Amino acid sequence: MSEKINLKLKVWRQNRGEAGRFEDYEANGIDTDASFLEMLDVVNEEITLGGGEPIAFEHDCREGICGCCGSLVNGKTHGSHERTTLCQLHMRHFKDGETVVIEPFRATAFPVIKDLIVDRSGLDQIIAEGGYVSVKTGNAPEASTTPIKKEMAEASMDAAQCIGCGACVAACPNGAAMLFTAAKVSQYALLPQGHPERTQRVLGMVNKMDELGFGNCSNEYECAVACPKGIDVKNIARLNREFVKASLTSEK
Amino acid sequence: MKLDAKIPEGPMAEKWTNHKFKVKLVNPANKRKHKVIVVGSGLAGASASATMSELGYKVDCFTYSDSPRRAHSIAAQGGINAAKNYPNDGDSVFRLFYDTVKGGDFRSREANVHRLAECSNLIIDHCVAQGIPFAREYGGHLDNRSFGGAQVSRTFYARGQTGQQLLLGAYGALSKEIKKGGVTMYTREEVIDIVVIDGVARGIISRNLVTGELSRHEADAVVLATGGYGNVFFLSTNAMNCNASAAWRAYKKGAAFANPCYTQIHPTCIPVHGEYQSKLTLMSESLRNDGRIWVPKAKDDQRPANQIPEDERDYYLERKYPAFGNLVPRDLASRNAKMVCDEGRGVGPTGNAVYLDFAEAIERLGRDNIEAKYGNLFEMYNRITDEDPYTTPMMIYPAVHYTMGGLWVDYNLMTSLPGLYAIGECNFSDHGANRLGASALMQGLADGYFVIPNTINDYLASNNLPTVGTDHEAFAEAEKAAQDKLDKLLAVNGNRTVDDFHKELGHLLWENCGMARSEKGLKEALEKIPKIREEFWKNVNVPGSADDLNQALEKANRVADFMEFAELMVKDALERAESCGGHFREESQTEEGEALRKDDEFCYVGAWEFQGLENEPVLHKEALEFEEVKLSQRSYK
Amino acid sequence: MTLKRTILSSIGQKLLLATSGLIMFLLFLIPHMGGNVLFLFGPDLFNSYAHHLHQLVPIVIGIEVLMLASISVHMIMAFRVVFANAKAHDKRHTQKDSKERSLAAKLMPYSGGMIFIFILKHLLDFKFYEKTEIISEHGDHMYNVYAMVLSRFQGDPLHLLFYVGFMLAVGFHLSHALQSSLQTYGLYIPRNDSKIKLASVVIGWGMASTFAIIPIMAFVG
């Protein structure tokens, strides 16, 4: 059953174009059934009524699918629970009186916009380089034309679940976007629909990823632990294979 | 204002084909001279932007999110309907059309619904070609499951994340066109007004959410794909940022708003558990395939679920609707849950919940099977409630989920303001008074991929739209009005937060204009809403400044619109003194407590025209005619 | 153009890093260890191994050239990768828990650097060191490498410590490098099934300890 707890917060505050700093807040009388973001709502209401500016944090669906939310909570992306986004982390996992440190997802490719909000548009730019099948509306054959092995469809779906939250980048000691890129490359590598473009897809996406200043993979697998959707590093292995194959066979 | 639905001539099944032939076309070389603004990047917005760009139009697409992929379409769990008839269970375009008209309780426009059913199959073809990993059978073919309001299995799905996969498909198509240069994407850019010049929509005013800067954008046509207004209730299954502002500004600029009282209350959501709660979480309707809904037969039964013997349980849906059982349409499932809770038979700490029990299904199919089907949903439930649905029945309660009402559109999806289109949940056209499960994704994609790219030509080809330039006074006026409003909000400096007001408004609406509505309650709400609004403008506290990322200001600007919109919604609910679909008027029910439609009085679309805030809006009625599906009282018994 | 782009891409660099590393591992480290083990079997066998090795001059030179190339590529790529990674994550989290990252992975650049220093020292110690000639029982003229190894360590605990210490770096480096190179080649290393990871650790530390035994034995006599 739910109870009320009090917490001490150290929250990263930063304005556009300025250096940031940690500030202390108190979160009192927090219901343990509340979500982490609802706890921040309560704190923000108090800050507002006290004449301050509320903590800016990104959020939208609050059911773990839109990929908006995410911060480092006590040094862990999305907090302490595996396969959980911050909005789905509940306060029952915190102890009364605990100090909670909250800071934004950091990476050179994710500049801070304000407080806990970072710019993750690099991920969109990677997708724009080929994270899709180029089929114009109206071109499609009847859906049942190509049977696809159930296992392949399932493995593709495993990869396709990525919500683009950027936790993998923040968790990576090198600020790499390999898991993100690998998930999209894998989704299409596993399906026949993705095959005609697989060469330019992997080359284009990896190239963009490098250009945007994401780091290199050093196979430390922090990303996979951080991923709220449990996307496996085998996708990175597949990305590497796809890359080698594409580099050897590219016509350009 | 005269509403002309422009329904094409000819037999129902040929209307769309005929219409596509009859609309004017823009020749390929001229297409690139036309710019179209699309507001919103969800299923409808992203698919429309991508497809129009493929055709050659210049498209500017706007979203307030940091990426088009965040749109709330992403949260749709269950699936998407199509009349493929792969399971060979007797499905057809006509049956999907029929089910949708009937499910909508005969308050939708037949021609639009038939077109929707026709497009449904094309959507599946297209999405499969896009590499969307739909669920498959061992033979490699696409799998289907069943959903409420239908007796066939026609729902395609990708685990519990169908909306996500379809949105990412549309987002991929959009990304492809962004890369090609056909679409210019504006992220973190909120549209805050529509600019009308000489009676036609010619552009928008937007606010950059990072810098606070206002900017003007001109176009030949504006397409709103901004979703529904469910967040007017404060607590709903919508994402936190969903809002009615763009549609509301369009209404204030002359577009009629249709059937605002039609809101869908989804039966299977996790019950409210505290004051702090910010949103409600939906559990997919697909759970009703195997879960059985029940409450104790006795009032105030405090025993834990597993201590209540079988013969003291009331499986009320199975009892009352033997033909459809737990798979009755959403409005019926929701209303019945409310009825049993009002009788004092609700469960859980607040008494506002019913059980959704999988014990029998687990026994019949085995835990592994249930886990494979619903594992992620069970996990989500467990995470939120800290209870294990494999051993204890889930507790669920209805919550605001979808809004069938929206901007009035004709068959071309153009609003009554020329040059302004509305697609997806943002318009009113296809779902009548109740939407069937797995139909929202279908409509969003049908509108975006297949309808608007075919109908917008007609407007662009038949109208001379000279460049006006964003220096035009209409742009300057709209920008100034927007700036003034933001400044005004910041200047109030009162004692209550935006959320505080939003909660008050939402609570009032839920109580008086929620699952059951009465003349008395609605009149009471009509008295209270202006007072809340007045206090809002006197006592709201919006911190920060307008030239910075300011989430409180964004929210305040949206809630200010909800304060006005709520009144129209209640007015519409009061005007419609019948029960239909999601709109249940207590005065209009059968002896058994079922919704009673009054076709002779209310078989129309109620479209409201703005007359200034201080004046009463004017109601226009578009009569609904049913040629193919005979008007009848719905029965799911 | 594509080739250059491929080589200088993040994955291309990692591939070169893995390949050069594996070349050194397979063509140098493993044979070297095999030779070293002979030390444990007394001066005759060891000296004759060294003698035979010298007679294979063309092959040895070939391998030496390959090693020089590999080590250059390995170091250039390592510098590029480490530098790029530092740049990609220059704004560190103030508090960051690692859940999966191993100590070996964290130490890669440092253990790599240490190994490089070690190699230089090792070459000075043995390759470019004056050796005494002896005549074997078959009448061959050969260097008394065995005696040289003994002389380098006996009565010099500091030198011993240096060698053993640097073998720690080898152990750390290999235990991450072996499985990491397989992942880079696209061979899947399951996160929860750590057989390959375990093998990598066992081989890495096994080899490091084997190398460490020689100076220890030499010290003890």
TrEMBL record, chain A:
Example GO molecular function: electron transfer activity
Cofactor or coenzyme needed: [2Fe-2S] cluster; [3Fe-4S] cluster
InterPro entries attached to this UniProt entry: 2Fe-2S_ferredoxin-like_sf, 4Fe4S_Fe-S-bd, 4Fe4S_Fe_S_CS, Beta-grasp_dom_sf, Helical_ferredxn, SDH/FRD_Iron-Sulfur, Succ_DH/fum_Rdtase_N
Biological process per Gene Ontology, one example term: respiratory electron transport chain
Record's keyword terms, sorted: Iron, Iron-sulfur, Metal-binding
Limits of the 4Fe-4S ferredoxin-type domain: 153-182
Domain of life of the source: Bacteria
UniProt-listed NCBIfam families: PRK07570.1
Family label: Belongs to the succinate dehydrogenase/fumarate reductase iron-sulfur protein family.
Protein name: Fumarate reductase iron-sulfur subunit
Annotated organism of origin: Pontiella sulfatireligans
UniProtKB/TrEMBL annotation, chain B:
GO biological process: anaerobic respiration
Gene3D superfamilies with a match to the protein in the record: FAD/NAD(P)-binding domain (3.50.50.60), Fumarate reductase/succinate dehydrogenase flavoprotein-like, C-terminal domain (1.20.58.100), Succinate dehydrogenase/fumarate reductase flavoprotein, catalytic domain (3.90.700.10)
Catalytic activity, as annotated: a quinone + succinate = fumarate + a quinol
Cellular localisation: Cell membrane
Cofactor(s) this protein requires: FAD
Ranges of residues in domain FAD-dependent oxidoreductase 2 FAD-binding: 36-441
Topology term for the membrane: Peripheral membrane protein
MF terms in GO: electron transfer activity; flavin adenine dinucleotide binding; succinate dehydrogenase (quinone) activity
Entry keyword Flavoprotein: yes
InterPro entries: FAD-dep_OxRdtase_2_FAD-bd, FAD/NAD-bd_sf, Fum_R/Succ_DH_flav-like_C_sf, Fum_Rdtase/Succ_DH_flav-like_C, SdhA/FrdA/AprA, Succ_DH/Fum_Rdt_flav_su, Succ_DH/fumarate_Rdtase_cat_sf
Catalytic residues as annotated in Swiss-Prot or TrEMBL: 330 (proton acceptor)
Pfam families: FAD_binding_2, Succ_DH_flav_C
Ranges annotated as spanning the membrane: none
GO cellular component: plasma membrane
EC numbers, comma separated: 1.3.5.1
Residue span, Fumarate reductase/succinate dehydrogenase flavoprotein-like C-terminal domain: 502-636
PANTHER family assigned: SUCCINATE DEHYDROGENASE 2 FLAVOPROTEIN SUBUNIT, SUCCINATE DEHYDROGENASE FLAVOPROTEIN SUBUNIT
Protein name per the record: succinate dehydrogenase
Native source organism of the sequence: Pontiella sulfatireligans
UniProtKB/TrEMBL annotation, chain C:
Keywords: Membrane, Transmembrane, Transmembrane helix
Superkingdom, taxonomy of origin: Bacteria
Matches recorded under Gene3D superfamilies: Fumarate reductase/succinate dehydrogenase, transmembrane subunit
Cellular compartments per GO CC: membrane
InterPro entries tied to this protein: Cytochrome_b-558, SQR/QFR_C/D
TM region(s), chain numbering: 15-39, 59-83, 103-124, 160-178, 198-220
NCBIfam families named in the record: sdhC_b558_fam (TIGR02046)
Protein known as: Succinate dehydrogenase cytochrome b558 subunit
Organism of provenance: Pontiella sulfatireligans
